[in-house]
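HUMAN: Spend a minute on the protein record below and explain its fold to me.
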Amino acid sequence: MIEKLPANQLPRPTGRMKTALSVGRIAFLVGFLSLLQPTTTAAFSSSSPANIAREALAMVMTSSAFSEFGPPEPPVAVFSDVDGTLVHYPEGNDKLFLLDNIDKAITIGKNNKILQLPASATGLQGVISSQTLAKCQEIRNSGSKLVLVSGMRTSTLLKRLPFLPLSDAYCNEGGGRIFYRVPLSEDVPKEDWPSFVVHPEVYDGATEEDLQPFALQEDMAWRQQMEQSDAAGTDGYIGVELPPQESSGDNNDPIRHVPLSDRVGALWDYAQDLSSQGFVLDTNGYATCFRVNRKQQITPESKDSFERLLAGSVTCPPGISTSTNLGCVDFYPEDSGKNNCCRYLANKFSNGGDPDALSKRCVCLCDDDNDSEMALACHHAFIPGVGSASMKGLIQKYPAQFSRTGEDRQTIAEGLVATEHALELVLERATDCGSRDMEVEECVLRIDDARNALKEY
């Protein structure tokens, strides 16, 4: 079984991998796993014990990939995508299981409760594990900045903040907006707090500091770039300011958003052009980008045209960029995007003294097409799961740039464990080199726990 592993999955020997993978040890682990009977639960697809052993072994072996980094210097910043990377979306039996047990404490393994996030504007509801939240805080405690970079609309970000990892910065709308966390002291009278306050959700392993309330402050220098007339202009921000606006005036009328037809700016000029061609556009809750969703296209013509958008066959006008995200097509100013946003923050967090901080001293976690530029711009990228064919092709083309800990299609538990393992590799990079190497047995048993979990509630 072991001889059939592809050669490119076998790491070069390193002094830092203290848990040597001797042939005898591997044979023992494979033999041990072959005795385990797979447990059937509503959340997992069936896999043979041999496949479990193969996947567990491959996941352990990827843990040496960080040795390519060179000197053991903590990253200035760790940038992470959210959907499909830290947060996973159940499908099929996974989804039914979670819906049936929504009021129960579901765990993966020991002391690893799953948190279910509020549904997005399009109805998607993801989950995140306590271990993911805890490991993200370990990264911050190691001295690296943690930055979440997502394509989600501002209204969705604000609803999800209590469930997301405590971060130094939150970038949404594909990098169009940047918010910084501002901790709030319980010693300050509540009447002196801002009107929008985030109270983090409790998770397994959370400390008092992890649950400290906080506010948000927008990066106005970055915003001014986005507000230029050759970018997104100012109209999109109306109705999606901080604090969140739900009504206007005393009559409790819905907050007024500037309709697309009245918005001024290069981005909205292009949006109006696409709308005139019959496309249904999603501008709700976005200030600096808009989305074209396949599911929202009504006519056969717009559905056919959408495939051309998705394939990149439609050329954007000057000043506008595009990427795909969750099977949708996003459009935004060319100065926005995850890559530019990360570069801006890497320079900021290195005190403006290193223009190459992103490529030399930052790493990222990601999964999809809209992460590709960020993945190549950072020093290294960790992939808990592959969300698109283009990302898979990128990994094959530049294998040294990526450490992959998950598969293309995974059960919800496998995806969560793949995320946790990717964070372990980042921690190995951020802390004393080699001091966090995972024991082979530990990783194998965690994979087995994942396949037999979601039954303790």
Confidence is low (pLDDT under 50) at residues 1-71, 247-253, 433-445, 453-457. The longest helix spans residues 412-430. The first strand starts at residue 77 and ends at 80.
